Amino acid sequence: MNKRLFVLLVILMSLSLIGIIFVQGYWIKKSVEDKEEQFSNSVSDVLDKVADKITRRERNDYFDRYVNIKDSVGDLKSSHFKNFFFIDQDISSDEIHYYSHGILEEEYNIASTFFDNGSGEDTTTIKNYTSRRLKATFKEDLGLDGHQSRFTPIEKVEKIGGLTSMEISAFEDMFGEFAKRVPIHNRVSKQEIELLLERELTNRNINTDYEYGIASKGLPTSVKSRKFSFRNPTPYKSLIFKDSEGNSNYSLLITFPKKKRFLIRSILGMAALSLLFTLVIIVAYSSAIYQLIRQKQISEIKSDFINNMTHEFKTPIATINLAVEAIKNPQVIDDKEKVMRYLQMIRDENKRMHAQVENVLRISKLEKNQLDISKDRVDVHDIIQDAIAHVELIVDDRGGYIETHLKAGRSEILANEMHFTNVIVNILDNAIKYSPNAPKIDIYTEVVKNNIVIEVKDQGAGMSKAVVKKVFEKFYREHTGDIHNVKGHGLGLAYVKRIIEDHQGEVYAESEKDKGSSFYIKLPLI
């Protein structure tokens, strides 16, 4: 993948993810705000309804007491009847409209204790009003002489009973003026407030703790719940016991100590789903980015691998071609010693290419789990000695050494002899290749609990911590400026790791730049 295209793709995906997270965060914030607004509107409606019900209950109490007392008194002290009327004639239809409204005023002797004013003086006057309404329409009929006439009733409606809404309002206002002098704790009880609040809040699905109180001109009163504080800066409130002009000295206040928790809980389900889906998107995004980066790295590693393999096959092929051309030379073909030397070169180079191909095939089979590994009882010390024999000539040729310190008291394991030998050979080959000077290698064994630990220690170039973490990855090779200065294709240690893991063992490395490396193999004993 083109580097610029890759960077652009990552940026676009990152911006998309940030946009999704921002939208989700904004949605959750907006939902909380909307819920809070709905909550405030619902609470305001609840307070208005509760205040209205308490006010109406008080006035109904006064009306009921008034009716009961009036019925028990019985005799009128005095009565007055006032009547208002008007007459209107429609000339076009010869109709006359008559309307009258009479009010009967009845006065009773009722004690002043009705309003509980506590003065002890009988100065209260209770009056009953009865309204009588009459509406009639007459048709004027002229006599034969054109002068005599009579009125024929067409419609007549008469109503006797209650007062108009205006008169009732005046009546209620009168009771309200007397009620203002009654202490607030005698006008409403805590039980009544709690019952009405509980009922109204439940009807609106507001199921959270609340505290309430009644304030008089902004000052606290004794009518309040146990934990209510008048210092709360943002209580919900509504006027209670309002007069005909909508004014009142009293306010019903309510607070919700756990309001935020209630609001968040109300959208918790949708918010949790939203966060879950966002998390899934983040995980998918992270995985996609990781895979893209990984594929890019693998692509680069494979390119390096192809370059290395090309280089490593190119040299043997060139050597073989030169040897063949040399043998074809008439002056050389008769020289048996030279012919044998060139044939040996051809055999060695061919063997070298074959070993590389086999290594690649082994790794491929391991990846597909097609490599058949049968295990037998083997001695680790014997395998180490066998592996040393494979590389001893190379080490001697470079003036180095391989020393063994095989101190493990038990050394038998269950393993595949051929593959485990290849493991040790690969580690030794790695130590030889990365020793700039004469290779100096020490091999140690020891028993740790029920395991044998093999350490292959060299004094070569060493590795950085970043390289140590990746050294067992397939195709990975440390870049050293010239990619071909150390021949290899990044498969040897990957093969080592897969074989050791198949033997239920562990392999790891410790290294320091310019101070050499140590490879450890840990396998269970039998």
Automatic annotation (TrEMBL):
Report what the protein is called.
Answer: histidine kinase
Is Isomerase tagged as a keyword?
no
Catalytic reaction equation(s) = ATP + protein L-histidine = ADP + protein N-phospho-L-histidine
InterPro entries recorded: BphY/WalK/GraS-like, HATPase_C_sf, HATPase_dom, His_kinase_dom, HisK_dim/P_dom, HisK_dim/P_sf, Sig_transdc_His_kin-like_C
Q: Which organism is it from?
A: Maribacter aquimaris
| Organism classification | Bacteria, Pseudomonadati, Bacteroidota, Flavobacteriia, Flavobacteriales
Q: Which SUPFAM superfamilies match?
A: ATPase domain of HSP90 chaperone/DNA topoisomerase II/histidine kinase (SSF55874), Homodimeric domain of signal transducing histidine kinase (SSF47384)
Report a single Gene Ontology molecular function.
kinase activity
PANTHER family attached to this UniProt entry: HISTIDINE KINASE, TWO-COMPONENT HISTIDINE KINASE
EC number of the protein: 2.7.13.3
Q: Where is the Histidine kinase domain?
A: 308-526
- On whether Cell inner membrane is a keyword of this UniProt record, the answer is no
State the source organism's domain of life. Bacteria
Q: Which UniProt keywords apply?
A: Kinase, Membrane, Phosphoprotein, Transferase, Transmembrane, Transmembrane helix
Q: Which residues cross the membrane?
A: 6-28, 267-293
